[in-house]
Structure prediction request, 145 residues.
Amino acid sequence: MDPTLNAVLAVSIRWIHIASVVTLIGGFIYARFVLAPALATLAAPERQALAKRTAENFRPILYTVLVAILGSGLYNYLSKASYPPHYHMWMGIKFLFVLHIFAVSILYTLPSADEAKRNRWLTGMIVSGLVIFAIAGYLRWMSLS
Ligand code: HEM
Prediction:
């Protein structure tokens, strides 16, 4: 492939990956630590209606970033020039945490999910997201060193 086109693609797809994961994990942190305490001050019927509405509003953003993360992540993974030792193993570990976030985030936006579960799920996804950031940093470091 033409080296300029290759560079433009690599940077653009990296941008898509980072912008999407920031939107996803940032959204969870906002929902858990800003929105949930604010909702808790409302009376039950009003709170439940608003919680359901916010989850519904989040759904199109969620599906867009899930597709973007998976597509850009696969591109990043398959387009690497070489793989250092243990790279695939750490990528596999990262993928298990990714699967947790993908599955639970879809459950989170289903209308049937109850409020207490939604808050627990958010905490779990934030923890998985922070672990993934650490693994991604390590993958980057092992690729450069
Ligand atoms: C919630 C899901 C995910 C999060 C939070 C996440 C987070 C990150 C972050 C922060 C980076 C560092 C960006 C960089 O150095 O350019 C990264 C890089 C990367 N991600 Fe993801 N990612 C996720 C899902 C995926 C998936 C599903 C795949 C593959 C199918 C993937 C494959 C990669 C690869 C190959 C890199 C480059 C690592 C390297 O520098 O060698 N990611 N990811």
